[in-house]
Amino acid sequence: MKIAVGSDHRGVAVKQRIVPLLRQSGHEVIDVGPDNPGSVDYPDYALEVARQVGDGRAERGILICGTGIGMCIAANKVRGVRAAPCHDSITAEMSRRHNDANVLCLSADLLGGELLDRMVKIWLETEFEGGRHARRVEKIARFEAESKNR
After folding, report:
1. What is the pTM for the complete model shown?
2. Which residue is catalytic, options 65, 72, 86, 105?
3. pLDDT digit string, tens, across residues 96-121
4. Residue 111: CB partners within 8 Å, gap ≥ 6?
5. Is 86 tagged catalytic?
């Protein structure tokens, strides 16, 4: 799978932990930065990852900031993106299973390394259930398409 990954300055260390794990699992990684912990604006990186996913250059995206919330807000502004801020294994699984989330947003400040590793693995391996959940995701996509004309 091709996965775009980005962070803000607070998420650099977590990103540097996750990228090698993704590559070791056989995924192609597009690291949009940053490469050092110097202060940056999270929307710049969130929007770049979201654009990669939204236009099909990447199948999925992972974003990391202090809480995961700011990245999620920014990423969800891009058409076709369903970003979810996850804080445990259950939210990571359910964001995929029921919501077909294509961008995982993580907290660099609130999650430990082993939990982060487990969440990423679960999120990447969990399939979308479809069925009634597909109908709901499609409603969101239709609203998104209609709202661009407003």
Report:
1. 0.95
2. 65
3. 999 999 999 999 999 999 999 999 99
4. 14, 87, 119
5. no
